[in-house]
Amino acid sequence: MSDPARPGRFRWYLAGVGTGAVAMGLQVVLFPWMLVGVLHETPSRVGLAQTAVLVPSLLLILLGGAISDNRHLGTYVRRLFLLYVLPCGVLLWAALSARLDYPLLMLFGVCYGTITAFVQPAREGLLPQVHSGNIQQSVAQSTFVQFAAQSVGIVAAGQFDRIGLPLLLLFQMAMFVIAGNLFRRAQPAHEGLQTGRRREPLGVASGFATVWRLPGLRALMAVVSITGFFGFGAYLVAIPLMVREIYHGGAGLFSAVQLCFTLGVLSANLLFMRRGSSLGRPGRALIASLFGRGIVLALLALHLPLWALFPGVVVWGMFSGMAITLGRVLTHTQAPDSHRSRVVSIYQLAFFGTAPLGAWLTGQMIAGFGVLPALAALGVCTLIASALATLTPVWRAGSERRSAPP
Length: 406
What we know:
The structure is a single chain. This protein is an all-alpha fold. The chain has one domain (10-189, 204-396): MFS general substrate transporter like domains (Growth Hormone, Chain: A, Up-down Bundle), CATH 1.20.1250.20. It contains 16 helices and no strands. The chain has helices spanning 8-38, 43-68, 73-83, 85-96, 102-130, 135-157, 160-163, 165-186, 204-213, 215-245, 251-275, 282-300, 306-334, 340-352, 355-369, 371-389. Helix 1 (8-38) runs antiparallel to helix 5 (102-130), helix 3 runs antiparallel to helix 5 and helix 15 (355-369) packs across helix 16. The two termini are 19 Å apart.
Protein backbone atom coordinates (compact mmCIF):
# COMPACT_ATOMS: atom_id res chain seq x y z
CA MET A 1 0.00 0.00 0.00
CA SER A 2 1.13 3.56 -0.57
CA ASP A 3 2.12 5.81 2.30
CA PRO A 4 0.67 9.31 1.86
CA ALA A 5 3.26 10.68 4.31
CA ARG A 6 6.05 9.74 1.93
CA PRO A 7 5.03 10.90 -1.58
CA GLY A 8 8.73 11.18 -2.45
CA ARG A 9 9.06 7.39 -2.40
CA PHE A 10 7.11 7.08 -5.65
CA ARG A 11 9.37 9.66 -7.29
CA TRP A 12 12.44 7.61 -6.36
CA TYR A 13 10.66 4.56 -7.75
CA LEU A 14 9.97 6.34 -11.03
CA ALA A 15 13.61 7.46 -11.17
CA GLY A 16 14.71 3.84 -10.73
CA VAL A 17 12.30 2.68 -13.43
CA GLY A 18 13.60 5.37 -15.79
CA THR A 19 17.29 4.71 -15.20
CA GLY A 20 16.86 0.97 -15.54
CA ALA A 21 14.84 1.50 -18.71
CA VAL A 22 17.70 3.46 -20.28
CA ALA A 23 19.89 0.38 -19.84
CA MET A 24 17.16 -1.90 -21.15
CA GLY A 25 16.59 0.41 -24.12
CA LEU A 26 20.22 -0.11 -25.04
CA GLN A 27 19.58 -3.84 -24.82
CA VAL A 28 16.62 -3.58 -27.21
CA VAL A 29 18.97 -2.45 -29.99
CA LEU A 30 22.40 -3.80 -29.04
CA PHE A 31 21.59 -7.48 -28.67
CA PRO A 32 19.66 -8.01 -31.94
CA TRP A 33 22.06 -5.77 -33.86
CA MET A 34 25.09 -7.69 -32.63
CA LEU A 35 23.38 -10.73 -34.13
CA VAL A 36 22.14 -9.12 -37.35
CA GLY A 37 24.67 -6.38 -38.07
CA VAL A 38 27.92 -7.61 -36.47
CA LEU A 39 27.82 -11.40 -36.73
CA HIS A 40 25.45 -11.42 -39.77
CA GLU A 41 23.54 -14.41 -38.46
CA THR A 42 20.74 -16.18 -40.35
CA PRO A 43 17.06 -15.56 -39.47
CA SER A 44 16.73 -18.92 -37.71
CA ARG A 45 19.81 -18.24 -35.54
CA VAL A 46 18.55 -14.73 -34.72
CA GLY A 47 15.24 -16.24 -33.60
CA LEU A 48 17.05 -18.88 -31.53
CA ALA A 49 19.21 -16.27 -29.79
CA GLN A 50 16.19 -14.11 -28.97
CA THR A 51 14.54 -17.24 -27.63
CA ALA A 52 17.53 -17.75 -25.30
CA VAL A 53 16.80 -14.36 -23.71
CA LEU A 54 13.12 -15.18 -23.22
CA VAL A 55 13.18 -18.81 -22.09
CA PRO A 56 14.29 -18.01 -18.49
CA SER A 57 11.11 -15.99 -18.06
CA LEU A 58 9.12 -19.05 -19.02
CA LEU A 59 10.98 -21.21 -16.50
CA LEU A 60 11.71 -18.89 -13.58
CA ILE A 61 9.31 -15.95 -13.47
CA LEU A 62 6.79 -17.76 -11.23
CA LEU A 63 9.55 -18.51 -8.74
CA GLY A 64 10.57 -14.87 -9.03
CA GLY A 65 7.06 -13.77 -8.14
CA ALA A 66 6.83 -16.11 -5.16
CA ILE A 67 10.18 -14.91 -3.81
CA SER A 68 9.19 -11.27 -4.29
CA ASP A 69 6.15 -11.69 -2.01
CA ASN A 70 8.57 -12.66 0.79
CA ARG A 71 11.25 -9.98 0.47
CA HIS A 72 12.03 -6.40 1.41
CA LEU A 73 11.69 -5.23 -2.16
CA GLY A 74 13.82 -2.09 -1.98
CA THR A 75 16.88 -4.13 -1.02
CA TYR A 76 16.02 -7.09 -3.22
CA VAL A 77 15.49 -5.07 -6.42
CA ARG A 78 18.79 -3.26 -5.86
CA ARG A 79 20.68 -6.54 -5.66
CA LEU A 80 19.01 -7.84 -8.80
CA PHE A 81 19.97 -4.75 -10.80
CA LEU A 82 23.56 -5.04 -9.65
CA LEU A 83 23.62 -8.61 -10.99
CA TYR A 84 23.10 -7.26 -14.54
CA VAL A 85 26.67 -5.92 -14.38
CA LEU A 86 28.12 -9.45 -14.52
CA PRO A 87 26.87 -10.60 -17.97
CA CYS A 88 27.33 -7.09 -19.38
CA GLY A 89 30.91 -7.11 -18.09
CA VAL A 90 31.61 -10.41 -19.85
CA LEU A 91 30.22 -8.96 -23.07
CA LEU A 92 32.43 -5.89 -22.63
CA TRP A 93 35.48 -8.13 -22.23
CA ALA A 94 34.55 -10.02 -25.40
CA ALA A 95 34.09 -6.81 -27.37
CA LEU A 96 37.46 -5.42 -26.22
CA SER A 97 39.31 -8.66 -26.96
CA ALA A 98 37.59 -9.36 -30.31
CA ARG A 99 36.08 -12.60 -28.96
CA LEU A 100 32.44 -11.79 -29.61
CA ASP A 101 30.76 -14.82 -31.16
CA TYR A 102 27.39 -16.54 -31.35
CA PRO A 103 27.82 -18.99 -28.41
CA LEU A 104 28.86 -16.13 -26.12
CA LEU A 105 25.80 -14.10 -27.13
CA MET A 106 23.62 -17.13 -26.43
CA LEU A 107 25.17 -17.43 -22.95
CA PHE A 108 24.71 -13.71 -22.37
CA GLY A 109 21.07 -13.97 -23.42
CA VAL A 110 20.39 -16.78 -20.96
CA CYS A 111 22.04 -14.90 -18.08
CA TYR A 112 20.32 -11.60 -18.89
CA GLY A 113 16.95 -13.32 -19.24
CA THR A 114 17.41 -15.17 -15.94
CA ILE A 115 18.00 -11.95 -14.01
CA THR A 116 15.06 -10.28 -15.76
CA ALA A 117 12.77 -13.15 -14.71
CA PHE A 118 13.31 -12.08 -11.09
CA VAL A 119 13.44 -8.32 -11.72
CA GLN A 120 10.04 -7.98 -13.39
CA PRO A 121 7.74 -9.29 -10.62
CA ALA A 122 9.85 -7.65 -7.90
CA ARG A 123 9.72 -4.24 -9.57
CA GLU A 124 5.97 -4.57 -10.18
CA GLY A 125 5.40 -5.74 -6.61
CA LEU A 126 7.16 -2.65 -5.28
CA LEU A 127 4.90 -0.23 -7.19
CA PRO A 128 1.72 -0.59 -5.05
CA GLN A 129 3.85 -0.24 -1.89
CA VAL A 130 5.22 3.17 -2.87
CA HIS A 131 2.67 4.63 -5.31
CA SER A 132 0.71 7.79 -4.55
CA GLY A 133 -2.81 8.56 -5.73
CA ASN A 134 -4.85 6.44 -8.15
CA ILE A 135 -3.31 3.05 -9.00
CA GLN A 136 -4.33 3.37 -12.66
CA GLN A 137 -2.56 6.71 -12.95
CA SER A 138 0.50 5.35 -11.13
CA VAL A 139 0.71 2.42 -13.54
CA ALA A 140 0.38 4.79 -16.50
CA GLN A 141 3.06 7.10 -15.07
CA SER A 142 5.51 4.24 -14.53
CA THR A 143 4.84 2.92 -18.05
CA PHE A 144 5.36 6.40 -19.50
CA VAL A 145 8.63 6.89 -17.64
CA GLN A 146 9.79 3.41 -18.61
CA PHE A 147 9.31 3.93 -22.33
CA ALA A 148 10.46 7.56 -22.33
CA ALA A 149 13.72 6.49 -20.71
CA GLN A 150 13.93 3.44 -22.95
CA SER A 151 13.85 5.79 -25.94
CA VAL A 152 16.99 7.47 -24.55
CA GLY A 153 18.71 4.10 -24.52
CA ILE A 154 17.51 3.38 -28.05
CA VAL A 155 18.84 6.72 -29.31
CA ALA A 156 22.17 6.04 -27.61
CA ALA A 157 22.34 2.58 -29.17
CA GLY A 158 21.73 4.17 -32.55
CA GLN A 159 25.26 5.61 -32.23
CA PHE A 160 26.63 2.06 -32.37
CA ASP A 161 28.59 2.66 -35.57
CA ARG A 162 29.98 5.97 -34.31
CA ILE A 163 31.08 5.38 -30.71
CA GLY A 164 31.39 1.61 -30.65
CA LEU A 165 30.08 -1.27 -28.55
CA PRO A 166 32.48 -1.00 -25.53
CA LEU A 167 31.42 2.53 -24.56
CA LEU A 168 27.75 1.65 -24.91
CA LEU A 169 28.21 -1.39 -22.65
CA LEU A 170 30.01 0.73 -20.02
CA PHE A 171 27.13 3.21 -20.10
CA GLN A 172 24.63 0.37 -19.76
CA MET A 173 26.41 -1.07 -16.73
CA ALA A 174 26.48 2.35 -15.03
CA MET A 175 22.73 2.76 -15.58
CA PHE A 176 22.01 -0.62 -13.98
CA VAL A 177 24.04 0.31 -10.88
CA ILE A 178 22.34 3.70 -10.52
CA ALA A 179 18.88 2.16 -11.00
CA GLY A 180 19.48 -0.36 -8.23
CA ASN A 181 20.41 2.37 -5.77
CA LEU A 182 17.38 4.46 -6.71
CA PHE A 183 15.01 1.56 -6.03
CA ARG A 184 16.72 1.16 -2.65
CA ARG A 185 15.94 4.80 -1.87
CA ALA A 186 12.31 4.23 -2.86
CA GLN A 187 11.98 1.74 -0.01
CA PRO A 188 14.64 2.10 2.71
CA ALA A 189 15.41 -0.74 5.08
CA HIS A 190 13.02 0.48 7.80
CA GLU A 191 9.99 0.38 5.45
CA GLY A 192 8.16 -2.57 3.91
CA LEU A 193 8.86 -6.13 5.03
CA GLN A 194 11.14 -5.91 8.07
CA THR A 195 14.16 -8.05 8.83
CA GLY A 196 13.21 -10.80 11.26
CA ARG A 197 9.52 -10.73 10.31
CA ARG A 198 8.12 -14.21 9.80
CA ARG A 199 7.76 -14.86 6.08
CA GLU A 200 5.11 -16.97 4.44
CA PRO A 201 6.36 -20.05 2.61
CA LEU A 202 6.92 -19.73 -1.12
CA GLY A 203 3.66 -20.50 -2.90
CA VAL A 204 3.97 -20.74 -6.66
CA ALA A 205 0.92 -23.00 -6.82
CA SER A 206 -1.15 -20.59 -4.73
CA GLY A 207 -0.65 -17.91 -7.39
CA PHE A 208 -2.08 -20.23 -10.03
CA ALA A 209 -4.96 -21.15 -7.73
CA THR A 210 -5.77 -17.48 -7.18
CA VAL A 211 -5.81 -16.75 -10.91
CA TRP A 212 -7.89 -19.83 -11.63
CA ARG A 213 -10.54 -18.82 -9.05
CA LEU A 214 -11.01 -15.41 -10.66
CA PRO A 215 -12.58 -15.71 -14.14
CA GLY A 216 -11.49 -12.22 -15.18
CA LEU A 217 -7.83 -12.91 -14.40
CA ARG A 218 -8.00 -16.36 -15.96
CA ALA A 219 -9.34 -14.94 -19.22
CA LEU A 220 -6.87 -12.04 -19.15
CA MET A 221 -3.92 -14.44 -18.94
CA ALA A 222 -5.24 -16.45 -21.89
CA VAL A 223 -5.78 -13.39 -24.08
CA VAL A 224 -2.39 -11.91 -23.25
CA SER A 225 -0.53 -15.17 -23.87
CA ILE A 226 -2.03 -15.65 -27.34
CA THR A 227 -1.46 -12.10 -28.50
CA GLY A 228 2.01 -11.96 -26.94
CA PHE A 229 2.92 -15.07 -28.89
CA PHE A 230 2.34 -13.26 -32.18
CA GLY A 231 3.42 -9.76 -31.13
CA PHE A 232 6.85 -10.62 -29.77
CA GLY A 233 7.73 -12.65 -32.84
CA ALA A 234 7.18 -9.55 -34.98
CA TYR A 235 8.92 -7.16 -32.61
CA LEU A 236 12.00 -9.21 -31.73
CA VAL A 237 12.73 -11.09 -34.96
CA ALA A 238 10.80 -9.75 -37.95
CA ILE A 239 11.57 -6.05 -37.44
CA PRO A 240 15.41 -6.21 -37.32
CA LEU A 241 15.40 -8.58 -40.29
CA MET A 242 12.97 -6.32 -42.16
CA VAL A 243 15.33 -3.37 -41.61
CA ARG A 244 18.26 -5.37 -42.99
CA GLU A 245 16.65 -7.34 -45.81
CA ILE A 246 13.73 -5.18 -47.01
CA TYR A 247 14.95 -1.62 -46.34
CA HIS A 248 18.71 -2.41 -46.47
CA GLY A 249 19.38 -0.26 -43.40
CA GLY A 250 21.95 -0.34 -40.64
CA ALA A 251 21.98 0.21 -36.88
CA GLY A 252 20.83 3.83 -37.30
CA LEU A 253 17.65 2.86 -39.19
CA PHE A 254 16.94 0.03 -36.78
CA SER A 255 17.31 2.43 -33.85
CA ALA A 256 14.99 4.93 -35.58
CA VAL A 257 12.32 2.26 -36.06
CA GLN A 258 12.60 1.22 -32.41
CA LEU A 259 12.36 4.86 -31.38
CA CYS A 260 9.17 5.30 -33.42
CA PHE A 261 7.65 2.32 -31.62
CA THR A 262 8.62 3.82 -28.27
CA LEU A 263 7.17 7.21 -29.21
CA GLY A 264 3.89 5.47 -29.96
CA VAL A 265 3.91 3.81 -26.53
CA LEU A 266 4.60 7.18 -24.90
CA SER A 267 1.77 8.86 -26.80
CA ALA A 268 -0.69 6.20 -25.72
CA ASN A 269 0.30 6.56 -22.08
CA LEU A 270 0.07 10.35 -22.18
CA LEU A 271 -3.53 9.97 -23.31
CA PHE A 272 -4.16 7.34 -20.68
CA MET A 273 -2.69 9.52 -17.91
CA ARG A 274 -5.18 12.23 -18.85
CA ARG A 275 -8.27 10.10 -19.44
CA GLY A 276 -7.46 6.60 -18.22
CA SER A 277 -9.19 6.84 -14.86
CA SER A 278 -12.48 7.49 -16.70
CA LEU A 279 -12.31 4.18 -18.58
CA GLY A 280 -15.23 2.13 -17.35
CA ARG A 281 -14.42 -0.86 -19.58
CA PRO A 282 -10.63 -1.18 -19.81
CA GLY A 283 -11.05 -4.76 -21.02
CA ARG A 284 -12.77 -3.61 -24.20
CA ALA A 285 -10.06 -1.00 -24.79
CA LEU A 286 -7.43 -3.75 -24.36
CA ILE A 287 -9.05 -5.98 -26.97
CA ALA A 288 -9.52 -3.03 -29.35
CA SER A 289 -5.80 -2.23 -29.06
CA LEU A 290 -4.91 -5.82 -29.93
CA PHE A 291 -7.16 -5.68 -33.00
CA GLY A 292 -5.45 -2.46 -34.09
CA ARG A 293 -2.05 -4.08 -33.67
CA GLY A 294 -3.08 -6.87 -36.03
CA ILE A 295 -4.15 -4.31 -38.66
CA VAL A 296 -0.78 -2.54 -38.45
CA LEU A 297 1.21 -5.79 -38.83
CA ALA A 298 -0.82 -6.64 -41.92
CA LEU A 299 -0.09 -3.19 -43.37
CA LEU A 300 3.64 -3.52 -42.69
CA ALA A 301 3.58 -6.70 -44.76
CA LEU A 302 2.67 -4.60 -47.82
CA HIS A 303 6.23 -3.20 -47.96
CA LEU A 304 5.36 0.38 -47.10
CA PRO A 305 7.65 3.10 -48.48
CA LEU A 306 10.20 4.30 -45.94
CA TRP A 307 8.31 7.55 -45.27
CA ALA A 308 5.20 5.53 -44.34
CA LEU A 309 7.10 2.94 -42.29
CA PHE A 310 7.82 5.38 -39.47
CA PRO A 311 4.24 6.57 -38.79
CA GLY A 312 3.07 2.97 -39.19
CA VAL A 313 5.42 1.84 -36.44
CA VAL A 314 4.33 4.79 -34.27
CA VAL A 315 0.71 3.63 -34.54
CA TRP A 316 1.81 0.07 -33.77
CA GLY A 317 3.54 1.41 -30.66
CA MET A 318 0.39 3.29 -29.61
CA PHE A 319 -1.72 0.15 -29.75
CA SER A 320 0.98 -1.83 -27.96
CA GLY A 321 1.30 0.88 -25.29
CA MET A 322 -2.43 0.70 -24.66
CA ALA A 323 -2.24 -3.07 -24.33
CA ILE A 324 0.73 -2.95 -21.94
CA THR A 325 -0.82 -0.39 -19.60
CA LEU A 326 -4.34 -1.80 -19.66
CA GLY A 327 -3.07 -5.33 -19.03
CA ARG A 328 -1.10 -4.11 -16.01
CA VAL A 329 -4.06 -2.10 -14.72
CA LEU A 330 -6.43 -5.05 -14.98
CA THR A 331 -3.90 -7.28 -13.22
CA HIS A 332 -3.27 -4.84 -10.35
CA THR A 333 -6.95 -4.05 -9.83
CA GLN A 334 -8.03 -7.71 -9.78
CA ALA A 335 -5.09 -9.28 -7.93
CA PRO A 336 -5.47 -9.82 -4.14
CA ASP A 337 -2.90 -7.87 -2.12
CA SER A 338 -1.60 -11.02 -0.42
CA HIS A 339 -0.72 -12.64 -3.76
CA ARG A 340 0.08 -9.57 -5.84
CA SER A 341 3.62 -10.42 -6.94
CA ARG A 342 2.62 -14.00 -7.69
CA VAL A 343 -0.33 -12.90 -9.83
CA VAL A 344 1.86 -10.29 -11.54
CA SER A 345 4.44 -12.97 -12.28
CA ILE A 346 1.74 -15.13 -13.89
CA TYR A 347 0.65 -12.14 -15.99
CA GLN A 348 4.25 -11.62 -17.06
CA LEU A 349 4.58 -15.33 -17.78
CA ALA A 350 1.52 -15.06 -20.00
CA PHE A 351 2.90 -11.94 -21.67
CA PHE A 352 6.53 -13.00 -22.06
CA GLY A 353 6.39 -16.76 -21.59
CA THR A 354 4.97 -17.48 -25.03
CA ALA A 355 7.50 -15.10 -26.63
CA PRO A 356 10.35 -17.67 -26.92
CA LEU A 357 8.21 -19.98 -29.02
CA GLY A 358 6.84 -17.02 -30.96
CA ALA A 359 10.36 -15.72 -31.67
CA TRP A 360 11.56 -19.16 -32.76
CA LEU A 361 8.51 -19.77 -34.96
CA THR A 362 8.82 -16.32 -36.56
CA GLY A 363 12.46 -17.02 -37.38
CA GLN A 364 11.48 -20.30 -39.02
CA MET A 365 8.65 -18.65 -40.99
CA ILE A 366 11.00 -15.93 -42.26
CA ALA A 367 13.62 -18.50 -43.23
CA GLY A 368 11.00 -20.47 -45.17
CA PHE A 369 8.77 -17.77 -46.68
CA GLY A 370 10.43 -14.36 -46.19
CA VAL A 371 9.93 -11.39 -43.89
CA LEU A 372 6.80 -9.85 -45.42
CA PRO A 373 4.73 -13.06 -45.64
CA ALA A 374 5.65 -13.80 -42.03
CA LEU A 375 4.43 -10.34 -40.95
CA ALA A 376 1.18 -10.86 -42.84
CA ALA A 377 0.60 -14.19 -41.09
CA LEU A 378 1.32 -12.66 -37.67
CA GLY A 379 -1.12 -9.83 -38.37
CA VAL A 380 -3.94 -12.15 -39.44
CA CYS A 381 -3.41 -14.39 -36.41
CA THR A 382 -3.51 -11.37 -34.09
CA LEU A 383 -6.80 -10.25 -35.64
CA ILE A 384 -8.33 -13.69 -35.14
CA ALA A 385 -7.12 -13.86 -31.53
CA SER A 386 -8.54 -10.42 -30.70
CA ALA A 387 -11.89 -11.33 -32.27
CA LEU A 388 -12.08 -14.48 -30.13
CA ALA A 389 -11.19 -12.41 -27.06
CA THR A 390 -14.50 -10.55 -27.33
CA LEU A 391 -16.16 -13.80 -26.18
CA THR A 392 -14.22 -13.86 -22.89
CA PRO A 393 -14.81 -12.05 -19.56
CA VAL A 394 -12.05 -9.60 -20.54
CA TRP A 395 -14.58 -7.90 -22.83
CA ARG A 396 -16.73 -7.13 -19.77
CA ALA A 397 -13.90 -6.36 -17.34
CA GLY A 398 -14.17 -3.11 -15.39
CA SER A 399 -11.70 -1.28 -13.18
CA GLU A 400 -13.04 -2.31 -9.78
CA ARG A 401 -10.41 -2.92 -7.11
CA ARG A 402 -9.97 -6.28 -5.34
CA SER A 403 -8.11 -6.32 -2.04
CA ALA A 404 -8.64 -9.81 -0.70
CA PRO A 405 -8.89 -13.27 -2.14
CA PRO A 406 -12.39 -14.71 -2.49
